[in-house]
Amino acid sequence: MVERRKRAVKRGKASLKFERPPVIEAAASVVGKKEGDGPLGSLFDRVEEDATLGKKTWEEAESSMQEEACRLALEKGGLKKEEIRYLFAGDLLGQIIATSFGVAELGIPMFGLYGACSTIGEALSLGAMTVAAGYGDRVLSVASSHFATAEKQFRFPLGYGNQRPYSATWTVTGSGAFVLADLAAAAARKLGQKPAETKGMAVIAGITTGKIADIGAKDSMNMGAAMAPAAYSTISRNLMDFEVEASYYDRIITGDLGDVGRTVLLDFMKAGGQDLTDLHMDCGMEIYDKETQDTHAGGSGCGCAAVTLAASILERVRSGEWKRVLFVPTGALLSTVSFNEGQTIPGIAHGVVIEHREVQDWNEGGA
User: Fold this and answer.
1) What are the backbone angles phi and psi of residue 70, rounded to the nearest 5°?
2) pLDDT digits (tens, 9 = 90+) for 74-132
3) Which of 59, 93, 192, 232 yields a CA-CA distance of 20 to 30 A from 345?
4) Are 256 and 300 in contact, with CB atoms under 8 Å apart?
């Protein structure tokens, strides 16, 4: 009789703690020129100077960017596409067309996802569950967005030249891709190899799945206010499910609340008894220079949290600067149909617990 390893422990109402955490084996980020000109510019793997990537349409450009991120992640991990069991991917466009056209040539069995700007959190969560449960040694999680495709679909054609209120955010042109691997599979590839310098690895230690939060926001130019209640809900749920204080984490990182949403979140958390002022970080506020790049409240889009995680956050976890972070991509679940019919803008946020592991832990992969 084969002894079955316990893969995960249910925590509270909405969380899982993985007994053998999946490793983030490789990550890649591809961005546009505006993102490359921002504070994180030197950290991205690839900066595309041409926003169309040589394609005829903005949508084709986003598809190409997503495929590029996937192939680059595989290349950085020394992997072939045949070694990936499943692909979890999504974007902001109707019927997730950037994804379906972008990853088609990879030929990997795919789960198409839509969580608005929280999609990378959903993709990482489902990917981690799949690896931890033993349904695949490796999966690929990816998300993308493009300023021009998002403006075209959700707001105004670029040629219209409308004025943007200061509460508005700037959709990131970017795609982030991540290879998640079982520790034993990752360790097997490391045998006989000297780990890069003395850096450790980043693992997904747990997840907290978000639920819909809707406070009645209707302003499509103020996504931060619409998403902040969802961020509050998921962060609070995570702290309750894992029975920890906010200080358990070195950083609690939201996806794209921007200036406005951050203020709302901090107020909500203080009212709930947790002060995140010194712990909170928002990817939308990190990716652009507010003063010089005219992005108003900050960055947004599926690509915002994805490329910031791939380019900046993971490196700080791997190096041990941060031992544990709660990564909470945030999404506003509106569409042109619901908005034009006068509906509210529901929000959702998914929590991913990312932890540092020492290099020697590779040797425990087959244990």
Assistant:
1) -65, -50
2) 999 999 999 999 999 999 999 999 999 999 999 999 999 999 999 999 999 999 999 99
3) 59
4) yes
pLDDT in tens, 275-289: 999 999 999 999 999
Of 127, 344, 325, nearest to 216 by C-alpha is 344
Contacts of residue 217, defined as CB under 8 A and 6 or more positions apart, other chains included, come to: 225, 226, 344, 345, 347
Do 234 and 208 meet the contact criterion of CB atoms below 8 Å apart? Answer: yes
- Which residue stretches of the chain are H helix? 33-36, 58-76, 97-102, 119-132, 147-154, 183-190, 223-241, 258-271, 283-286, 290-293, 302-308, 314-318, 336-340
Rounded distance, CA 198 to CA 267, Å? 40
Task: Report phi then psi at 96, rounded to 5.
Answer: 40, 55
Helix, strand, coil abundance in the chain, percent, nearest 5: 40, 25, 35
Could you say which DSSP state residue 21 is in?
A: P
Check residues 165 and 133 and name the one with the higher pLDDT: 133
Q: Locate tokens 């939201």: which residue?
A: 254
Dig out the tokens for 139 from the structure.
């999966």
Kindly state the tokens that stand for 297. 């409240």
Distance CA 308, CA 286 (A): 8
Type of residue found at 176:
G
Closest CA to 317 of 13, 7, 23: 23
Q: Which are the contacts of 314, defined by CB distance < 8 A and separation ≥ 6?
A: 24, 27, 202, 354
- Bridge partners (DSSP) of residue 354 are 204, 325
Cα 190 from chain centroid (whole Å): 26
> What's at 169, amino acid-wise?
T
Task: Tell me how far apart the alpha carbons of residues 297 and 188 are, in angstroms, rounded to a whole number.
Answer: 45
| The length of the chain, given as a count of residues | 367
Residue type, 364: E
